[in-house]
Design a protein that fits this description.
Strand content of chain A: 15-25%
Oligomer: homodimer
Low-confidence stretches of chain A: none
CATH superfamily of the largest domain in chain A: Aldehyde Dehydrogenase, Chain A, domain 1
CATH class of the largest domain in chain A: Alpha Beta
CATH topology of the largest domain in chain A: Aldehyde Dehydrogenase, Chain A, domain 1
Number of helices of chain A: 15
Largest interface: A-B, 74 and 75 residues
Largest sheet of chain A: 7 strands, mixed
Mean pLDDT of chain A: 96
CATH architecture of the largest domain in chain A: 3-Layer(aba) Sandwich
Helix content of chain A: 25-40%
Number of domains of chain A: 2
Strand order of the largest sheet of chain A: 10-11-12-9-8-13-14
Structural class of chain A: alpha/beta
Shape of chain A: globular
Chain lengths: 473, 473
């Protein structure tokens, strides 16, 4: 379908999608989740052919994707997300205050750009699609060419499920092809863009979104280095375990994770470094272009004086190492994401860790491995400035889909405060409206005096919890 | 002070401002509010000399400004704003879920651009400054040249109050001069921009903010037409009252309000139009440039065939009128804000109102005057798309400072979902951080298990109300 046809259909569905109740939209999402689960075997077979990510990982990703759809269904029926606020009139105040009631409403059609590396969770039926549909925004997905048949199969399942659940026609569509990307961002009906991909690609689309005569929000998840700091006592207590954990995390899915640990700070002469053991298998990668970019990136790292190969081989996985003096002299080593199974150990001494961290740009995650004997507070404070998620004694490649998750960070990790993972993903596609002195019959149910939806609301400054509400279809 | 000096000082205060407790920051704001109130007579005298807005209006604006500072103090001590979310570990889940806790943290130094037309409420100590300081972001204000001495006097009072309240040195500063604007937006330490002003000026600074190597959020409040629709039964029942209300609203403060009603749809042969009575007084305006722009804008309106002067005179206030056919043929009449005391009546019949509304761009407000006999629902739905605040049977020029207020709208009214008025103004200057498996002693108080601050939190998916908490300084 052409961009203009898809977006015109989406625009045509906007009023009906916004008018659907939260329960109705939750039902759409649960129906899509059920349909994906029911087709999981077929979908995973196809996905494995196109991505070679392996069936175990892909079945897990289907589960994560359908959990995500169900979480957003829960988020909108719980109702806090709509941020209902009521201030009753205060005619006796100076100046007199009118009755004023506020909530969030859907923006309109959203353009979603699928990623290559999560063919389910960040693709056609991923977090961006789920969170936009959840709040009543039609979606047009630009599918990723790394899994074209899977994208088509998934889209067909999503469309049929939405239709079966009574969603308005045109509320979901897909487009294909490189040129459809810019056209989608610049289409007059597009009200927001959600993107997961490279910094270069994301920046180009971001520039188009903000360069429109009517700029629209661009929610991008771009590059990420994901620094890890291993403290001396942790290294001493469990260096071998840390080495194994690191190798497993950096080589998972051929290292094709936005949360892959790319730079690992280890004490000089660390047990961790000594215990690193990698068998180079040159694992298949998602596309020839991604493989070529990985090989180029590895070659550039290996060509940098002071960077040594300590385990694995050129095709990956491989572990490199350098001293802090080397990375401070070549700060691009700390800022250049090489997408794939490579990581760089940076050997620090007591004084050089801070200086190296100051050369870094922001990431999605930052990780600390420490024992109680380690003095971590100052470094944690620095890492909070560098990342949107700070992990202790784990590895960043798992991203739990929960109310509390945040998968973002300052530029260049993401282009906005809120992203596609976690309950607040829905807020990206909403805008506030305040109603002043509105007659009760013209107010949306969420703002009617007797709270028919039973949702949490702030009334005259006081947060009131959910109530039973009335039964509503 | 130079932009670089001011921003360097702000950057130096970032860690201390972020580390201050909510109660401490609330105390800063209340101290500033008290100091402004204590100096209100002097400040209003100076403001009236520089703006000629009149003492009554200016005393009211000081009260609004200090109420706003106190509201943001209340917002941060109430604590919901920090969006604390806790999901306890679920090792039994598939996959196992780690302990994950999320909250919002300050972005860093904020550049604030003062407006000409609210020398207190949208200037040095206005909503942008208050909401940024409230959440621990240092502020550098680019003062407005329309009230230079008042800006200096206000800044001195704010600085002394902050110092007296124990705020870190450098947390607040000002810069002057046209060239300091772009420099402020492009300074490496600036993490967000808040702007109130013209669409042209705002767009130029927006382009700089998003064009940085590291784009930063630009929160702009730009142009607004503020359509009003008077329905037939309301016109018949109280045309004279509506005429008086309109003239009072559009001429208030010489029409120099971002919420001035600029286009008013009236039934053909309306009582409202007949009752319009305006005495042209050519009221003083804020600056010679604003007066010149007003005169140019009025001349252009009067030169358009089909636009008639029905009351008042060229220097203002004045009321013009045209038929819907005229404005549909010249849609710029519906899209061009003329800042000052002029408004355009647009005479509609049963079928032409919808077509004219479809020519409009978004505004901060949209207003309906109706009686129960009027069928308003479809038009209200259209107005919801065109504005961030929909008013019934009032006039848009008053903006209550409350939890529920929203002062924004789709482009070109504002450049973002959240703006400087209302409790969510603070969210513009915050970003999420999630802590995974963090030791209790490294968690911020808001996320510690026993909830020492007593703030509302979402725990394992359930919103928990505020508790007594512990006494904290």
């Amino acid at each position: 379908m052409s961009v203009d046809s898809a977006m015109t259909e989406a625009a045509g569905a906007t009023a009906a999608a916004a008018a659907a109740s939260d329960r109705e939209r939750a039902d759409w999402l649960r129906t899509v989740a059920d349909a994906l689960d029911a087709n999981a075997v077929d979908l995973v077979t196809l996905a494995d052919e196109e991505t070679q990510l392996g069936e175990t990982r892909l079945f897990g990703e289907v589960t994560r994707t359908t959990s995500q759809l169900r979480l957003f269904a829960e988020v909108v029926t719980e109702g806090s997300y709509i941020e209902a606020v009521i201030d009753h009139a205060r005619p006796e105040a100076t100046p007199p205050l009118p009755d004023l009631r506020r909530l969030l409403r859907p923006l309109g059609p959203v353009a979603v750009f699928a990623a290559s590396n999560f063919p389910f969770a960040f693709s056609v039926a991923g977090g961006d699609t789920a969170s936009a549909l959840a709040v009543g925004c039609p979606v047009v997905v630009k599918t990723h060419p790394a899994h074209p048949e899977l994208s088509r199969r998934t889209a067909a399942i999503v469309e049929r499920a939405l239709q079966g659940a009574g969603a308005p026609s045109g509320v979901f569509g897909t487009v294909e092809g490189f040129d459809s990307g810019p056209a989608l961002v610049q289409h007059r009906a597009t009200t927001a863009v959600a993107f997961t991909g490279s910094t270069a690609g994301g920046r180009a689309l971001f520039d188009l979104a903000v360069g429109r005569p009517d700029p629209i929000p661009f929610y991008g998840e771009l590059g990420s280095i994901n620094p890890v700091v291993i403290f001396p006592a942790a290294d001493e207590a469990r260096g071998a375990e840390l080495a194994d954990g690191l190798v497993a995390s950096m080589s998972l899915g051929a290292g094709q994770f936005c949360t892959k640990p790319g730079v690992v700070f280890v004490p000089r002469d660390s047990n961790t470094e000594t215990a690193i053991d990698v068998e180079a298998t040159a694992p298949p990668m998602l596309t020839p272009a991604i493989r070529a970019a990985f090989d180029r990136g590895v070659d550039e790292l290996l060509a940098t004086p002071g960077v040594d190969l300590i385990a694995g081989g050129r095709g990956g996985p491989l572990v490199l190492a350098a001293d802090t003096a080397t990375v401070i002299a070549n700060p691009l080593l700390l800022r250049t994401e090489v997408f794939g199974a490579v990581t760089l150990l940076v050997r620090y001494d007591d004084t050089s860790l801070t200086g190296a961290l100051e050369c870094m740009e922001a990431s999605l995650t930052a990780t600390v491995h420490a024992e109680s004997a380690d003095d971590v507070r100052d470094i944690v404070t620095k890492l909070e400035r560098l990342a949107g998620r700070v992990l202790f004694d784990g590895w960043p490649t798992g991203v739990a889909v929960t109310w509390s998750q945040h998968h973002g960070g300052p530029w260049p990790a993401t282009t906005s405060q809120f992203t596609s993972v976690g309950a607040t993903a829905v807020r990206r596609f909403l805008r506030p409206i305040a109603y002043q002195s509105a007659p009760e019959e013209l107010l949306p149910p969420a703002l009617q005096e007797h709270n028919p939806l039973g949702i949490p609301r702030r009334v005259d400054g006081v947060l009131e919890p959910a109530t039973a509400g009335e039964v509503r279809s």
